[in-house]
Amino acid sequence: MSLLEIRDLKTYYRADGGWVRATDGVSLSIDRGETVGLVGESGSGKTTLAKSIIRLFPDNAEIHGGSIDYDGTEITDLSDKELRRRIRWQEISMIPQNAMNGFDPVYTVGQQIVQVIRHHEEGVSKADARDRARDLFDELGIEPDRIDDYPHQFSGGMAQRAMIALALALGPSLVLADEPTTALDVVIQDRILETIKEKQAEIDSAMIMITHDMSVVSETCDRIAVVYGGRIVEIADARTIITNPRHPYTLGLRNAFPDISDDDQELISIPGTPPDLVDPGEGCRFAPRCPFAEEDCWEITPEPQEYEPGHFVECHRADEIDYLQSAAGEKSTWQDATTGDRDAVVDGGIVDTSGADATETEGGSADE
Amino acid sequence: MSEATGRVVDGSETYKLEVEDLEKHFPVNSGIVSRILRGESDQAVRAVDGVSLGIREGEAFGLAGESGCGKTTLGKSAIRLLEPTGGKIYFDGTEITNASGAEINRFRREAQIIHQDPYQSLNPRFTVYEWIKEPLDVHGIGTAEERDARVYETIEQAGLKPAEAYAPEYPSELSGGERQRVGIARALALEPSFLLADEPASMLDVSIRASILDLFKRLQTDLGLTAVYISHDLSLLKHMCDRIGIMYLGELVEVAPADEIINDPKHPYTQALVSSVPRIDPDEDRERIELVGEVPDPVDMPSGCRFHPRCPRIVQPEGYDFDQDDWRAVVNLRRDVLAGDVDPEAIRRNRDDDEASALAIRDAYDVPDRLADAAADDVLDAALSDVLAGDSNDAADVLRREFATPCESGPIETHQVTPTQEAACVLYDEDEPYTLE
Amino acid sequence: MSTDTDTTPQGAVTGLEKRIEQLRDGLGVFKGDRLGQIGIALVLVFVFVGVFARPITIEFLNVTIPGLAPHDPNARAVGGRLEPPSLAHPLGTTQLGRDVLSQLIAGTRVTLLVGSLAAFMAVFIGTNVGLISAYYGGWVDDVLMRITDIVYAVPFLPFAIVLVAIVGSSIVNIIGAIVLILWRSTARVIRSQVLSHKQRPYVESAEAIGASDVRIMYKHILPNVLPLAFLYAAFAVGYAVIAEASLSFLGFGDPNMLSWGEMIFTVYTADAIRQAWWWVFPPGIAITLFVMSVFFIGRTLEKVINPELRHQE
């Protein structure tokens, strides 16, 4: 029995033109102690998906359907108050992208951790909570005495570590990490990821790691879900996604991501822009950018198919894996995808930015 | 990689852009109060501190390093967008360090910059057409018709087609990738020969990043541009550049051809940096090099090699033989003793011990209870006894004298490690070889 | 999107269209904003009344547009003394038998003139001071901002009274006094805006192409801070009107120019405040209404500058 079971989840944002379907029919299950990566471009809905679990989204967002079963509790049935009291933070916590924004600047970091501990666990004395905060700091490699510092006295890496301390203070069973290292330099990123992994193993929590960085998910995750246009288009164990992907979008992402170990890699971008999620219509959402799109792709929405155990792909042509993989490695494949003048659509032509992008930003989830 | 990589540097080579001992210090206090009380504080952030570097004609050069290492300041000072506080700049062999008037104007036509943030680097009140035309107006180039034609030509050169469709748009109507292309078009309008691209793709989505990088590559080939790319992303620089320079705390620590610096870095800092980059390939096992502490404050620089307080390969003192990890631990302890920062009482309290002890101090710094080298252990033991007795000064004297490392003193020379690779590290000083296990 | 490949500089032409479109978008904030609409309507009425208050003679056409004021506001004894409102004199008469309605209408012109001129000049000076101060920084900034600080320390009324007492109370001097004080807040606010814009990469991009300081200040930065200057201009009009009224009420107004403040002053000196409510209230209400409508407009304009406010309703 898995820890978290999301079924057909739909989270929409209210916008001028109607509903933005940021998460549109996503199913995902996570086992205890497992790390699942969500990768995709900004505006793909990966952050919305994760935030839907603990309803940490702006006022104009709404869950429109589906269920989220957390350890036997149906989260979507809980009131905001119950969710806050019973689930958020003690069961499911979150490491935000920018730790500095996660802390309240007028309290010391220690005060905030103590407050979180005492808010969720009854009968813990201030002194005990403080001791636990100090221990956490020590374990995460920050001087315990620095719990009396204010957030602005911390460097970016240290603030991120303190945020991890805060997220793990109550020993949650699931941690949502939203681009936890995107704003950091590689040296610090490496150390933070290592710390997260260690602590996660220690308290045996599961994790959802949201990122656009293929190398980060490859190193830290057990399974990877590739998110596009509000749906999970491919999900499998990390190795399969990296070495043997079937969905053209996953193949495209691999092509576009520079690999430091590859001496003569040819970077290939994916033409076009993410789809307008206000009225996505029928058909595969990647079809307009896909070099392999056929007639069916435009008309019939693909359903997830299991190719190997645990490897689900939403693509009509996923069984042509050999052809897809070899053709996707050619730059010309992607250039020819767009009829005629490729440059006109290199970055998607002139787009209406009021669509999906804008909503994602309002949702507080600038992915980059 | 292009042919340029293989070219061996010889002394007579002329550079497109060359900086000599370039220095850019920012005063810490520049308000009126400090000006009245001038002399009280002449502290400065030494963002760029004596960098010498030559960029070859037509090459793609990458500048990398962590945030705050001074790579952007170096780039901007080199093209006089910031006024350097010291050193010299040569462009096409002509010194432009103090150029002004017509001379700097001529230079401004030749060297252009592409900014990181496509959402902030275009003036929201200018249309694409006006924005690209402005440099032509400023320099009074050609007739009105010629300028007009040039605008459309550059828009297309930057990959925005049809140009007529883009020309009347305001930046708010364009996507991030398109805005970045508009920025590039503006830089190209004056037909420059040198481009400085400051994190040109870091704000863009992965999927379109490649197309912008492609555009840069194509422009370099088609127009023979020389380009400097500033980025914290080593994978990207490796992909884009012929050569890469790594900066740490205002200094250039290593310069080498891109493949060599990534596959076989020489400077310990570069080694640590490269080892921290996560790898996509699940079969690749990278050896992580852990660094001590964080990047120090650029106001209060370490002496000697700036990396030595964190360097895992810090050179051992003469006459002693440490295990390298132990030596690193001893150096950390020594540094705090020298600074008078070791407080046995605080260590005792943290550990809940009954009594302060030398072992506790060793343990707090990960120094083993006994060092392999008995002579070294005696020195350390004596110093720690002094610390416990409250004689911090005596302890500091002993440690300073006995455990001196060449890394902490004097200016660090840049050594030619291989014919194409140079690193500023005493490990490569051939006159005084420091063996390392 | 047009795709024809005509070689005329259509970028410039369509740029103009775009600009008009932008302006229309900007004015779009008034749509659905009742208070803003009321503000605009009231101001338009005041402007109309102000312009056509007195007869306008166009010499070469030999036409005279009749004024809105039913009587000559300065003519004595058009009615009885301190007559309450009647059909002949809807707002009654003054102590000297002048028609209050005519005075009110005539006063509109002076008030509008003082308000708009003073506000325009104050914002003009303030914007330039703020722009130059922030752009050049260093000692220029120091000097200009210390002057601004000093002006901030000057209390308006005593300053204006002393100034007017020395140089004489003419409308020009009154406007001068208001401008000398009013520019300070605009300077401060514009300076902080410019400081933030100066840091943006588009300014560096202008430096990189070799644009001159003047060009960067006035072509690049100014258009970006102009909306804020407009907002301050709207508020400044309100303040200027109040300032003029205060000065006039205290007896330092231009004796030859009839303004609303001047009217209340006359009521006061005639010792008629208690009995002649029809004489006191109209100018008082006019001042309040006008200032209020200007602030309503300002409040709406604020949404153009700070779109976040649009969501807060």
From TrEMBL, chain A:
Bilayer topology: Peripheral membrane protein
Record flagged with keyword Cell cycle: no
Stretches of the chain forming a coiled coil according to its record: none
UniProt-listed CDD domains: ABC_NikE_OppD_transporters (cd03257)
Domain ABC transporter: 4-254
Protein name: Peptide/nickel transport system ATP-binding protein
Keywords, comma-separated and alphabetical: ATP-binding, Cell membrane, Membrane, Nucleotide-binding, Transport
Transmembrane in keyword set: no
Cellular location(s): Cell membrane
Organism listed in the record: Halorubrum alkaliphilum
UniProt GO molecular function: ATP binding; ATP hydrolysis activity
Main location: membrane
TrEMBL record, chain B:
A Pfam short name: ABC_tran
InterPro entries documented for this protein: AAA+_ATPase (IPR003593), ABC_transp_ATP-bind (IPR050319), ABC_transporter-like_ATP-bd (IPR003439), ABC_transporter-like_CS (IPR017871), Oligopep_ABC_C (IPR013563), P-loop_NTPase (IPR027417)
Domain of life, source organism: Archaea
This protein's record includes keyword Transport: yes
Keywords: ATP-binding, Nucleotide-binding, Transport
Entry GO MF terms: ATP binding; ATP hydrolysis activity
CDD domains: ABC_NikE_OppD_transporters (cd03257)
Record-level GO BP terms: peptide transport; transmembrane transport
Residue ranges constituting the ABC transporter domain according to the UniProt record: 17-274
NCBIfam families: oligo_HPY (TIGR01727)
Name the record gives this protein: Peptide/nickel transport system ATP-binding protein
Automatic annotation (TrEMBL), chain C:
Membrane-topology descriptor: Multi-pass membrane protein
Biological process according to GO: transmembrane transport
Transmembrane segments: 35-53, 110-136, 156-183, 225-250, 276-297
PROSITE patterns from the UniProt entry: ABC_TM1
Chief place where the protein resides: membrane
Alphabetical UniProt keywords: Cell membrane, Membrane, Transmembrane, Transmembrane helix, Transport
Compartments in which it is found: Cell membrane
Listed GO CC annotations: plasma membrane
Domain ABC transmembrane type-1, chain residue ranges per copy: 108-298
Signal peptide residues on this chain, from the entry's feature table: none
Family per record: Belongs to the binding-protein-dependent transport system permease family.
Name by which UniProt lists this protein: Peptide/nickel transport system permease protein
Species in which this protein is naturally found: Halorubrum alkaliphilum
